[in-house]
Design a protein that fits this description.
The complex is a heterodimer of chains A (480) and B (324). Chain A is an alpha/beta fold and 480 residues long. In chain A, 46% of the residues lie in helices and 13% in strands. Chain A folds into two domains: 213 residues, D-Maltodextrin-Binding Protein, domain 2, CATH 3.40.190; 209 residues, D-Maltodextrin-Binding Protein, domain 2 (3-Layer(aba) Sandwich). In chain A, the strands form three sheets. In chain A, strands 1, 2, 3, 4, 5, 11 and 12 form a seven-stranded mixed beta sheet that branches. In chain A, strands 7-8-6-9 form a four-stranded mixed beta sheet. The longest helix of chain A is centred in the middle third of the chain and has 23 residues. By secondary structure, chain B is an all-alpha fold. Classes of the chains: A alpha/beta (480), B mainly alpha (324). Chains A and B meet through α5, α20, α21 and α22 of A and α1, α10, α12 and α13 of B.
């Protein structure tokens, strides 16, 4: 028995959740960087703003001017610390967050902000364990099904009182977007970005192209572009989710908003012939797409549009980030968009589109929440102001502010147009993965199914649709 | 020490023959060559690793197996309503369209490593063992990828395989119509990834094998040469059999590397679109926002069962030779 063989078997690693939390990365950064940045922000804003004060600090100096009923000397007197969890990890967004936190501290001298910024995708993947563990008081998230899901799990705090103060600064559509299943309000909408067809004005004018209004026009234009040596539609689906944007718009145009939302919430079947039609129409334009789309990220796909090698890109407004980073401001100025063409159905009149809304929420399990509830709510209230949202917008021009009192004088033509197509839409959806269950829309769920379709678009999709439905049916009972 | 040293050399009454155990041996004082202190030390030395082993390996494994019979989604506690019996497995085997591709990719990975990558590594080792000029240089070149983490390997090869990357450019395939989409084409990308994985694996095997070759007694080769054996015969009849312990290590390393294949596929496209592996299915379904922990666990159990085959084979061999 002494001759114990201690060679341990190489253990098969099972599913042990490998938590790779990158906490504390930027913790405290807001305080440090913010304090230093305040004077600069004030100066910058003072120069540009005229009618409506852009800087939050300005609204402190003259509370009655720009901000309507939304902020009646809001959080004056509130003291404490608010901890915030942010998924803004891009350099430009980190700058925006720093500016906003600095402005918040300036407006609420009694409150300290401690921020924890986590990589966007990591934040998303760990949201469930994050909210059940020790989350920050306030955190960034998405509206729609994904907000309602965690709200109904009791992992977030209702903020009806905050909403009562700020709701006049929002249109009705935003109110719907932050209402939970129990009719309470759970979020403050802070920005949105429409999905549309993007193109370069110079390419269209050089080649004499016109904006296609109908499906037939659209396909004719594609053929023409092809003969001109352009890739008609650039596309990058390596990450799986970009294809969802095309699915959404085709389904909205062909089958309407009601069918689409019911389909994504399990009230319609994926085996429905209406879904087959979507795939058939999609197959018609697939030959016009970038051939190597499956291996491309959306950023790479966007590059061909920038380089004028491709003609159009069905994508979200945040692609402006790629255009802005070329170093040539003319590139961004040359970018334009048009709504997806009409498909000749009764649903064309809905002018529906995807325009995902990003929100801020208050968590439920934050250990400091009870002590900091007032500060946490003051922070939420602060985000509801156009002046706050503009601070992010100045750094990330692809996210349009949601507040009514936003000073739009600095909006470019493209941004104005984006606002316009959203305001004209009778129906607005979020995005496939925000309107449906996260377990359904994931990488080895709907994203994989769409990739299977795209690998062979002319296939008979009956079997594929049956597989999608089978996957949906096998999911645990819906909690929402 | 109050205990007198009772150095009874009486062996423990352990039955040696199989099935020769007599029930109810007479109760008598056991003699042991170990003092109490020895026993405590032994207990700690064995107990701590066992406790760690049980806590971090056996309990999570057991928990995974139990979770695979539920539809738990990671929120709140597990209730009776969560128990779904074999439903996860039935769905996995009959309807989940990504399971069989993933399993076949894992097996393909194993076969590719066993029959192609590892033999190449061994071949390189044999060549380098012949003290050819610049052998040390080649050794470093081939070993270099092993130093890189798989994340870096993935990144490097992603650049090579990109439609405007080195490989397509070198082949003159850059235009839209004839570019080969190495990582995007779902029937091609698994092979592209296998090449990238082998790039690293070959160097690893080479170094392991080279170390083994260096320890082979040179007189064996001399004797073989004097007996008139060709190079070929010397290697396969003399060196290879002598290298048996290293060969086993190579096999084990190869199998382990294949079964834990994950990084490259996940870095390239999260293990979708033709790069499905059991490990990426587990991650995408249970650890991501999807949080299908029960379903993911059932895939993990399948991977566990597959992993058990080589483990059992290896252990039975090691244990078997140890007891001889």
């Amino acid at each position: 028995m002494a001759n114990q063989d201690t060679s341990r078997p190489e253990a098969p690693s099972t599913t042990g959740p490998r938590s790779v939390t990158r906490r504390d990365v930027l913790k405290g950064m807001a305080v440090v960087a913010g304090a230093a940045a305040v004077p600069t922000i004030l100066a910058a804003c003072g120069a540009g703003a005229t009618a409506v004060p852009t800087a939050a600090a300005a609204s402190v100096a003259a509370p009655s001017t720009g901000v309507p009923s939304a902020a009646p000397a809001s959080a004056a007197g509130v003291t404490g610390t608010v901890t915030v969890g942010s998924n803004h990890s891009d350099a430009s967004e980190v700058k925006g967050m720093a500016a906003i936190n600095a402005a918040f501290i300036a407006a609420n001298p009694g409150i300290t902000v401690t921020m924890n910024a986590v990589d966007h995708n990591t934040f998303q993947n760990q949201i469930s364990s994050y909210l059940q563990g020790t989350p920050q008081d306030d955190f960034t998230w998405f509206s729609g099904y994904r907000m309602r899901f965690f709200a109904s799990q009791g992992l977030t705090t209702a903020i009806d009182d905050v909403w009562a103060k700020v709701s006049s600064n929002y249109t009705g559509a935003f109110a719907t977007a932050v209402t939970g299943d129990d009719s309470h309000i759970y979020g403050i909408p802070v920005d949105y970005y429409p999905w549309a067809v993007f193109y370069r004005k110079s390419v269209f004018s050089d080649k004499g192209y016109t904006i296609p209004a109908t499906w037939a026009d659209f396909k004719t234009l594609c053929t023409k572009m092809q003969s001109d040596g352009l890739i008609p539609i650039t596309f990058g689906d390596k990450d799986g989710w970009p294809a969802m944007g095309t699915f959404d718009i085709l389904d909205l145009r062909l089958n309407g908003y009601d069918f689409h939302t019911q389909l994504l919430t399990g009230k319609q079947k994926w085996t429905d012939p209406k879904v087959t039609t979507v795939f058939q129409k999609w197959a018609e334009i697939m030959p016009f797409h970038d051939k190597t789309f499956a291996g491309l990220t959306w950023e790479k796909a966007c590059d061909t549009l920038i380089q004028k090698k491709s003609g159009m890109f069905m994508f979200g407004l945040f692609l402006t980030g790629e255009f802005a980073s070329t170093g040539t401001p003319a590139d961004l100025a040359d970018l334009d968009l048009f709504p997806f063409p009409a498909m000749g159905t009764q649903y064309d009149a809905e002018d529906a589109l995807d325009a995902p809304i990003d929100i801020w929420m208050v968590s439920a399990k934050s250990p400091t929440l009870q002590a900091d509830l007032d500060a946490a709510k003051a922070y939420m209230e602060f985000w509801s102001k156009g002046s706050t949202q503009l601070l992010m917008f100045q750094n990330q021009p692809g996210f349009i502010p949601t507040a009514n009192d936003t000073d739009t004088s600095s909006f470019s033509d493209l941004q104005k147009k984006a606002v316009q197509i959203v305001s004209q839409a009778k129906k607005i959806t979020q995005f496939l993965d925000r309107d449906s269950r996260p377990d359904f829309a994931g990488a080895n769920g709907m994203q994989s199914f769409l990739q299977k379709f795209l690998a062979n678009p002319t296939q008979d999709t009956t079997a594929l649709q049956a597989q999608i439905q089978a996957f949906w049916d096998a999911l645990p009972p819906a909690t929402v | 020490m109050p205990d007198p040293q009772d150095t009874g050399l009486a062996p423990a009454p352990a039955p040696t023959g199989a099935g020769a155990i007599a029930s109810g041996p007479p109760k008598r004082r056991r003699y042991s060559i170990l003092t109490r202190r020895d026993k405590i030390v032994l207990l700690l030395m064995v107990g701590i690793p066992v406790a760690l082993d049980v806590t971090f390996i056996w309990l999570p494994t057991l928990a995974s197996i139990l979770l695979s019979f539920t539809n738990y989604q990671g929120i709140g506690g597990i209730t009776a309503a969560n128990i779904v019996g074999l439903k996860n497995y039935v769905f996995l085997f009959t309807q989940y369209t990504l399971f069989w591709p993933a399993l076949s990719h894992n097996l393909l990975w194993l076969a590719f490593f066993v029959f192609i990558a590892s033999p190449i590594g061994i071949f390189f080792a044999v060549l380098l063992d012949r003290e050819i000029r610049g052998s040390r240089f080649y050794q470093n070149v081939f070993y270099f990828p092993v130093v890189l983490s798989l994340a870096v390997v993935g990144f490097i090869w992603e650049l090579q395989y990109a439609p405007d990357g080195f490989i397509d450019s070198a082949l003159g395939l850059t235009s839209q119509n004839n570019a080969i989409d190495w990582l995007g084409n779902p029937s091609l990308n698994i092979w592209a990834v296998l090449v990238a994985a082998s790039w690293r694996h070959v160097g690893y095997i080479m170094v392991l094998y080279l170390a083994g070759l260096k320890s082979v007694d040179p007189t064996l080769r001399e004797a073989a040469a004097i007996d008139g054996a060709s190079e070929f015969q010397t290697f396969f009849r003399v060196v290879f059999p002598v290298m048996a312990p290293i060969n086993i290590v190579i096999v084990v390393v190869t199998v382990i590397e294949s079964l834990r294949a994950f990084d490259l596929a996940f870095i390239i496209n999260q293990g979708t679109n033709g790069l499905e592996l059991l490990s990426t299915l587990i991650t995408n379904n249970s650890i991501s926002e999807a949080s299908l922990i029960g379903f993911g666990s059932s895939i993990a159990v399948v991977l566990l069962v597959i992993s058990l085959v080589p483990i059992v084979l290896y252990l039975s061999r090691v244990m078997g030779s140890a007891s001889e």
